[in-house]
Design goal:
By secondary structure, the protein is mainly alpha-helical. The structure holds iron/sulfur cluster. Iron/sulfur cluster binds next to helix 9.
Length: 216
């Protein structure tokens, strides 16, 4: 929590996830794989301009047309297939418009999402947290780098689930907290904790956060 409050005091609330609807957040979570958000926005704008910013419509559109529209997001052929698979999953599972709010349901849903073509853990957890409002901590490369540099993990290759549980088991399970914390870690990673760390100017400098036995 000290990391969180320090970052929140310094950067302020990040207002994540950028997206006007649950469907837009799900679409954005797939498109943002391996690219920056500016490119995702262009792809989303294309879909919106063609009145296709809808999972139902994406599930029925042909793949080459979808690939052409999302081209700005990069890897557009693969992402078109992934996006269609994701859209088909949500269209098939109509109860996800208003999903039950219990942990067991969320864990089952997470397992099912991970079976969808092209949905990895980071994407599944982004959808669960930001679109479906479940308290799941999203782990990305910025999180790994921060954790490693502050000796919370032994290497940046530590298993995704271990890092996720490090946060989930040591913080209140709260959607807003997880939402903001992940967004702040991304901001930290882009601003100070870059590949070449800018520790001198960083708000976390000279504050020691570490585990005596980092997670291996
Ligand atoms: S930039 Fe330095 S002080 Fe800031 S989070 Fe990274 S390692 Fe820590």
């Amino acid at each position: 929590m000290r990391v969180y409050t320090t970052l929140l005091d310094y950067f302020g609330a990040q207002g994540w996830w950028p997206g006007e609807s649950r469907e837009e957040i799900i679409i954005g979570a797939v498109l943002t794989q391996n690219t920056n958000w500016a490119n995702v926005e262009k792809a989303i704008d294309n879909l919106r301009a063609h009145r296709l910013l809808s999972l139902k419509k994406i599930a029925t559109i042909d793949e080459p047309t979808l690939a052409r529209l999302i081209r700005p997001a990069g890897y557009f052929n693969i992402k078109a297939r992934r996006l269609k698979a994701t859209a088909e999953f949500f269209v098939r599972n109509k109860n996800l418009k208003n999903p039950p709010r219990n942990h067991r349901f969320m864990l089952n849903l997470r397992d099912e999402l991970l079976q969808v073509y092209g949905i990895g853990k980071e994407t599944a957890d982004s959808i669960l947290l930001y679109a479906l409002m479940y308290p799941v901590f999203v782990v990305d490369a910025y999180t790994r780098r921060f954790c490693f540099r502050h000796r919370l993990i032994e290497s940046t290759r530590v298993d995704y689930e271990d890092i996720r549980l490090l946060f989930e088991d040591n913080l209140p399970r709260d959607v807003e907290l997880f939402n903001e914390f992940h967004a702040l870690l991304v901001r930290l990673g882009k601003t100070f904790c870059r590949p070449k760390a800018l520790c001198e100017e960083c708000p976390l400098n000279r504050r020691v956060f570490f585990l005596s036995k980092p997670i291996a």
